[in-house]
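Subject: complex prediction, re-run

Hi both,

The earlier run crashed halfway through, so I resubmitted it with identical inputs.
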Amino acid sequence: MPPNGAEIVMEALQSPKPYSFRREMFNQFRKNHLAMGGLILIGFFFVIALTVLSFAFFKVYFPADPNAINLTQRLLPPSASHLLGTDQLGRDVLSRMLHGSWISLTVGFVSVAIAISIGVLIGSVSGYFRGWVDVVLMRFVDIMMTFPTFFLILTVVALLGPGFWKVMIVIGLTSWTGTARFVRAEILSLRQRDFVQAALAVGAPSGRIILRHVLPNAMAPVLVSATLGVAGAVLTESGLSFLGFGVQPPQPTWGNILTEGRLYIFDAWWLTLFPGLAILAMVLAFNLCGEGIRDALDPRLRR
Amino acid sequence: MFGYIIRRLIQTIPVLFGITVISFAMIHIAPGSPIGQALDPKVPKKVVEQWEKNFHLNEPMLVQYGLWLKDLSSGQLKSFKDGRPVLEKIVERLPATIWLNVVATLISFAIAIPMGIFSATHRYSLPDHIFTFFAFVGISVPSFWLAYMLILLLVQGFGIPVLGVQTFGLAALPPLASLADRAWHLFLPAVIFAVGEIAVLSRYMRGSMLEVVREDYIRTAKAKGLSEDQVNYHHALRNALLPIVTIFGFLIPSLIGGSVIIESIFAWPGIGQLGYQSVLSRDYPTIMTLNTIAAFLVLLGNLAADVLYAWVDPRISYS
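This time it finished cleanly. Structure:
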């Protein structure tokens, strides 16, 4: 039974702390075990990536140097000395996966940062100014939305040539349309509220009204779409890697370990299984977390 | 209704124009001439010039765009790779892709809809939680990895051939066995294709069902003393299925975009594989046409979804 209005007010009056939207959301989120699991997993990946990166900065590698080639130890199955086995050049798979973990996280976050910035900018300009600006921008969004995203990204990356930065920029430039649409919708509704009218009445400039009064109220759904966006971007990058257009070797990434490993799939299953599991775990973590935030924000789903 | 369709069709004209502009412009952002990328650098200059003339690449950009549109609409556009008309190449690939999509869609509907209904009618039960978790896994799993894991399992574990349209060298089998062989080769890629769709569709079905259960007419039906099943399957389900028809509109676009990876893995001779091969060989006319057709299909799919929705749900009117 969802709590009714009176119960919420009573609870707020009785609790020692004042009502806070953020705390309320976090409490809702915490009740969702799947989402909390996702959040913990994300934290775990972060700790690994940061630790490995900072040690690699001082040229300390663990459990082994990810690029140390040892041709006498090719394609060894998982054992005590190589927990996840070795690849076709005798490199330790666990080390390569650890040293590739920050790539996936970076691709996810940078491309989402690009996509969200463009989406919020276009959405808020479109929703706030309306009129012909809105018509032109939204037609452009319509056009971008009709292209098959993965094939579009594949085409552009293939034309520009693969590379770490290019992949992130292309994913970012092609995945902002959803954000632009719902930010515009939020802002169309928010700009009619009294507090915006009040700000207009005291003569606040448009930029200030958008940034200080309207956008902060539209941020919650942006957070949801950003979290789900990271999952999508990691998956897209792995798909590009698989087709040979992702981050290139010798830099190890989960995608390219898997891609190189598939040539040996019937001799060395560990080269395909483990990187794939890692990708699955990271994408799953962000998806669970994003959906958890969405549910926490939806008052109809209160329990 | 008819007026609505006409109005929507008119609205698509500027979008369609934009689609062709972007498809065209995308190819020209690449540094250097498209020919330089597609041909071996050792090819004599004269041949290159002949090529450029054949494909109108020596004309100004605007003229090139106009000629491209003309060739595209009249079906005369030729592939860089083998000089055959692009549309012909796409049409001959169409059946394989459509088969794959139809089978995948049937599998996903057959599994996802009962799953979604069960989740909704048994909300917060253990099976609901399990289905929810697996739906998340389904949308998170890289399809190529799943494909390799299944191939590994089937080939290594059971020695079953999986690639292509039929087993190599077995084309001369008796008709029935040949059909079974083909069906099996279709099944695995279709299942991998369906995994993502099942995940999305079952969540969609669950949400839709839970939405309907809140309606007044459901409370009325319960108040009349109807059994739980009667309410769920006669009153709720029919209305909960309505939004599902819009899904058909989104399935059309996946004909091209969704199948690039899966078709490449299974050597499935469809449109996705053609797209990947054209990207690899920098066959620009084919890439541009595929992008344009895909975008056009999305427009049609959206329109079809809206019209279908109005048709099945009399509460919606587009007058």
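Residues 28-60+85-301 of chain A form a domain with the MetI-like fold fold (CATH 1.10.3720.10).

- K.
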